[in-house]
Design goal:
heterotrimer, A mainly alpha, B mainly beta, C mainly beta, A: mainly alpha, two-stranded antiparallel sheet, about 5% strand, elongated, C: mainly beta, 16-stranded antiparallel beta barrel, 5 helices, globular
Chain lengths: ~300, ~240, ~475
Amino acid sequence: MTLQKFAVTFALGSVILLMAGATRSTAQSHVNSPDPLLGTPSVATETSQIDGVTGHAESGKHLYRRFCIGCHGPDGNGQGMNAQWIDPQPRDFTEATFKCRSTPTGTLPTDDDLYNAITRGFVTTAMPSWRPLNPQQRADLVAFIKTWSPRWAKEKPGASLNIPPETPITIESILHGRELFQKLECWKCHGPAGNADGPSAATLTDSKGNPIKPFNFTTGERFMCGDTNRDLYRIFMTGLDGSPMPSFADVIQPNDAWDLVHFLRTLQVALPNQELTLWQSYKAAHGKDLKPIGPDSAGGAQ
Amino acid sequence: MRMKFVAALGLTIAMGSALMVFATPPAGSGSITGKVTYTGTPMKMKPIDMSKEPSCAKQHATPITTENVTTGPGNTLKWVVVYISAGDEGTTTPSQGVRYDQKGCEYLPHILPMEVGQQLQIFNDDQTSHNIHPLAKVNQEWNKSQPPGSPPIDTKWDKPEFISVKCNIHPWMHGYFVVLKTSHYAVTGDDGAFDIKGLPPGKYTVTAWQEQYGTKTQEVTVGAGAATANFVFTATPY
Amino acid sequence: MSKKFSEGANPMSTKFSRWKTILTCAFLLIAIVACDVRTASALPTSKVIAIPAFARKYGLPCSACHTAWPELNNFGQVFRDNGYQLMNDRDSPIWQNPSYFPISFRITPSWHRETTTNQAFDTGNGTFTQAGFDLSGMDLWSAGTLYKNISFVLLPSSDPTAVWHFEAAFIRFDNLKGSRWLNLRFGRFEMDNLISEKRFLFLSDNGGLYQIYHFNVPGSINNFGYGDNQIGIELAGHSANSYTRYSVSMLSSNEGGVNFTTDVVPGAPPAGRSYDVNLAFSQAFNAPGGSGESGFGLERVGAFAYIGQRPTGFLTEGGVQQVGIDNKPFYRIGFAGDLSYKNLELLPLFMYGHDNAYLGIPGLASTTPLPLGAQAPTFYGGFLEAHYYFNPQNVALARFEQVNVGQQAFSNIGDGSASNGNITAITFGYRWYPIMFSRAGVALDAEFSRVRTIGQEPLGGISTGAVADPTAATWSNSIYLGFDFDF
């Protein structure tokens, strides 16, 4: 091959790549900061603490860009490029309103709450379990997520709910839970059998105005905020902020709450569990004595 | 004779004030009065179907209507919050609280103004559970269940904001907490009139807020007596 | 490097050739500088936003599963190990929008220049050079779930002339008995290699393969390549975050061929009836050093062993081969790693290969005694590959590879031929992903690769098929610039 031909091919290649480089260079003038378009100024200082691991928002920013940006967006508001096809919508971090917490309604979640949410993911949604990331990375992401809202600078997270030890799973507990289900009118949204067909179910919207369905217990699906009895306890005591599900912490006694947990498990007819087995044998014997759940003839809740 | 005249005048004022809601007026003898009216065609208010909640439906002989745009004779607008948005000095948080009722599956009053840090008590007077869900964006958003017979919910707000309030169980229930920095505010009544009292002389910016049509602002100079400011909103049918 | 070769035979010795090489390297360096990676990393992330089909299904960005597609990071590895499932109770296709279809395609138009020295032409010996625009083959990938815990891959693949074959086609039963340690794969698939050749970042003729994944000692009739897709059954398992992984496969001894032949294209010789076994195990652990842009700061090491057999003879009818018989064994064993430190990823591999002596002599039936000097062909070698991730959309690549023949098929080969077949290869590359949407992706791929082969034609580069001087080294270069896109 002659020198001329080599020079031509060399020049051709260089031109192509220089054009590519030039195109990119003109797109940006911030050459000094690594990723100026991502995050707020608090990225430099925000940290998180989960057990012995300290997370740093600066590292979390790179991880967010790699893993989270497609759904949660470059502005942290849940409007990533894929958000328009996702139901339920990705979390808007700028509002600092989170569903799965251990803290009272209206308060910020703890670092552990956010860490657990990332680790567990949210079943039935597009949010995967990020367990393949190591604990340091998840802690870094928690720190970065906190930079999206100014509330984290001014408020402290709420006090984590104190969950008493679980009471025994007995038929009395389930029956009392059933009374609570009726009295607190859970059936108005969740339906008398937990089928998500209560009278108010069809009109529910979340806090952004998007239609949302109440949880359907009968499908046996796992809860978004975890699948143990403790998680279920926490769900209705703290409420799922941003959704129609309110907090019942002011209206249920802690031990009564366990009764409600035990009853709710009996609604999960597609998921074999201890409470369901107990309940089914009770119903076989005493089913017809049970007052049906729903509006009573007097036209009001009991 | 004079006493009777004064008494009659006082009575008239008392009757008139039954049509309006006043905040506790601080010192200052000036005031801003006026009327809020609209031009154009306002949206029609629709009757609310409460059949899904019989315990509430039976409390209303005729169904109540939605309240987004509540009009009165003479093209007046009710439920408009008129307040001083600039020119006011700081105010201390009033020790007296305000009250919000859920009665007949309605929020009473439909619009409740209050000050930052002022105590707010929410009562459930109905036979059914409600959940109180203030959709705050600047303040904390929270959501609490309130079954019948529960004690009132005691709360307050830290930052000024117009907070939409809803009940998820009863989707027609709709109201507002209007949290203001100023103690000088009023809400128009059926006659669209407002009277902001107790203003020291000075130059003020007055804002009128209607939940559907937004805000209108005016500069008003207040002397020793009453200054007038009227607001006209452009109404649309939707 | 052997001292056997005279100065004149080494192209690097001429001033002109040295200058060409320097210029070519400079060309790539200028490209990297001009690309201005710090600026690139500041690209508006909102504007930028491989199987894109997976990204479409779940809404994740490409970088969530790939260090830089198509190479997987650990999150993507877990997704793959789960049977292309996120395990979110929404993996079954009934949950997808009916307009979603799990298909992606990938092809790379390119410009490249190939040079190979020491080639025989009718008019005399010399350097074979070709350059111009070109196409790659095309992959039409379909993968996903048929149902919860039943996954599939269907990968028809074509060469640049659009001759199609099935590169992969398998069904996988995931999480048997509810355990992630039991997954059964059935069909034609890529073996569970820690360092995957199918998902690496190189495309050029000389750089776009791992030499040692396709190496056989000269004269050996063995057609095995560790990088080739095989056909059979695999039982595999992994821990919850895929830090621990194992696989055991039983494969037909036909190099993944179909129709009982040894290839996926028509006209291949018939295969034998025997089976091979592949074993692979790896363990990953977190190491201090931070995650950086390579995503994880995870260190993975693994070991593998492939034990197989190939027929040394055929049953024939009328001279036409019908079925392979008289199998003789071979094995490949080795270690591999995937190590990360901040933005740097290192991929080392070492392999040792051993063929039975009968495999080293074409046409010798295993019932015949071995001739004098016949010995078991063996080889050893490996590579060290490095990636430097400036950010998820810019990665610089380099690889050094060396394969040495340990024992030739015959020990009494004349002096100087002990290194017959040895390969030294060095490759540099750079990939820039200007767009990385979940819907589609483009990568600009620039590579330079230089391979030295002793006594044989290069495995990857162009050749006439006849080495002019088998005692001399053959140098093969590739310069490559391609637009790798997939949808």
